[in-house]
């Protein structure tokens, strides 16, 4: 179990002082948090319960949450700092940025469409949102957002393209800004396998509230690289309604577990289609999203209906989330669920993440 703020597992960090296993499989786990009022408290509590309950032989779990004393807290911070130094230069993504990667087991389920529309809907909430197109070979974010141009360099680092969205802001990086589609093929194998790393390390992302990452389909190198570079990344798994798709998506969840990425929730795309007469058809079946969410013990964050506006908006480079059609409300609700329930921003003023940020800044300046 990774502490989302500190980016290391909670046992390594010394946050689990005791685990008692009773004869009948009754388990009691004590978790000591750095701050009693930690905004992530209920999330950590729920994740610990879920993980332990999923182990063979466990019949019940009691999670006791306490607070560390000053000495324990400084020890944890030392360990976290040490880790930050080990990985330095970690990434250019601020420790206070919530990182959400949109993933799926297979292609064509709507990851890229969900990524850009979720990002736009979050920006409409007044947030600053990074969009990283990690689909290096099959990038589609520039086309879906309708933006283009050359990425400029400042002090040897890439400056993401910016666009204002409502009262918020998007900062976008994609291979599509660095190479046209034909040339990108020629680059294959040369720089491309390091592109995601460079997008994370050698870019001026600035102070982002969220970074939403569009992953290529499947469970390949990009996913593993991301788990290594940004282990606090949380996955939003996109699946379509058929149960077969749900099985494929759960493979992506397995991969995430091995890479220690947390699955934050499931999004079902291409759900029921409602025609102009108001009749609803489950064209691709139904239940896949809910089933996958239940299997993984994570929330179903939202269901996005099958709707021709989605393809139209994508082709025109005008994300439906920014329009006034039916899907705009769907994505507004998805963004609300993400921002308020599934992956809320933390109030970091008294929190360890803020301290870590200072440490990283100091490291960057060589002090
Ligand atoms: N809810 C929806 N209703 C109708 N069409 C949709 C919906 N979601 C996505 N699409 C369409 O499905 C196609 C695939 O979507 P998208 O490119 O977002 O999928 P992807 O998972 O990113 O694909 P890839 O694996 O190739 O990266 C696009 O043409 C898109 O417009
Ligand atoms: Mg895609």
Mean pLDDT: 84
* Low confidence ranges: none
Largest sheet: 8 strands, mixed
Ions, cofactors and other bound molecules = adenosine-5'-triphosphate, magnesium ion
Indicate the radius of gyration in whole angstroms: 21 Å
Give descriptors for this structure.
single chain; 367 residues; alpha/beta; Rossmann fold; 2 domains; 3-stranded mixed sheet; 12 helices; 15 strands; 22% strand; globular; binds adenosine-5'-triphosphate; binds magnesium ion
Q: Can you put this structure into words, describing what you see?
A:
- There is one protein chain.
- The chain has twelve helices and 15 strands.
- By secondary structure, the protein is an alpha/beta fold.
- Strand 13 and strand 14 form a beta hairpin.
- Helix 3 (111-123) packs across helix 11.
- It is globular and about 60 Å long.
- The two termini are 31 Å apart.
- The relative contact order is 0.15.
- Bound molecules: adenosine-5'-triphosphate and magnesium ion (MG).
Topology, element by element:
Layout: E1 18-21, E2 26-33, H1 41-53, E3 60-67, H2 70-86, E4 98-103, H3 111-123, E5 128-133, H4 141-145, E6 152-154, E7 157-159, E8 161-165, E9 168-173, H5 181-187, H6 195-201, E10 210-214, H7 221-229, E11 234-239, H8 243-258, E12 262-271, E13 273-274, E14 280-281, H9 288-296, E15 300-305, H10 308-316, H11 326-342, H12 352-364
Parallel strand pairs: 2-3, 4-10, 4-11, 5-9, 5-10, 11-12, 12-15
Antiparallel strand pairs: 1-2, 6-7, 8-9, 13-14
The structure holds adenosine-5'-triphosphate and magnesium ion.
The site of adenosine-5'-triphosphate has 20 residues, from helix 3, strand 12 and helix 10.
